[in-house]
Specification:
7 helices; Tetracycline Repressor, domain 2; mainly alpha; elongated; about 160 residues
Length: about 160
């Protein structure tokens, strides 16, 4: 069997199990527990700022270095693979967005935050999207480790004023 035949057989075996090259990456994300810590941290009434900081901190810092390396590698690969980029957005970015939205929903329910009138869904999408985009920009695009001070600055300078 020629070398190129060997690759074709291997690729055929891969595609028997997965429909696309992005699906094994999805399994790696799930197996690596990438989104396990992306849940709202609820502290209690009057503590919205602390809840936002804690949720974002848990999502970024509770990850093992191997998980951070996985995100970085997938992000680098996603530049050439649009399907993988969508997968990362769905599995990680959207989960982080939902965790922050969860904190805000609890704050609205307990009266710490008024519902947004501009957003028909009652969500706070622009503020959350801005915060998540800034986290990703610092962490992935600028290749900078996001610190606790950075997270507090994003909450204080972006989230809280937009809310």
């Amino acid at each position: 069997m020629a070398h190129s035949d060997h690759i074709t057989v291997r690729d055929a075996n891969v595609y028997r199990r997965w429909k696309s090259r992005a699906e094994p990456a999805a399994e790696a994300l799930d197996h690596g527990g990438l989104t396990d810590d992306l849940v709202p941290v609820i502290i209690g009434p009057g503590r919205l700022r602390e809840e936002l900081v804690a949720t974002m901190t848990r999502a970024l810092w509770s990850q093992k270095p191997s998980r951070v390396d996985l995100i970085t590698a997938l992000h680098d690969t996603a530049r050439q693979e649009p399907e993988l980029c969508g997968l990362i957005r769905q599995r990680y970015v959207d989960s982080l967005h939902q965790a922050i939205e969860g904190v805000l929903a609890h704050a609205v329910e307990r009266g710490d935050l008024p519902p947004r009138q501009a957003d028909p869904s009652g969500g706070h999408s622009m503020a959350v999207s801005a915060a998540v985009a800034l986290l990703l920009h610092w962490g992935l695009v600028r290749d900078r480790r996001v610190s606790g001070d950075d997270i507090a600055a994003i909450v204080d300078g972006v989230l809280m004023p937009l809310l």
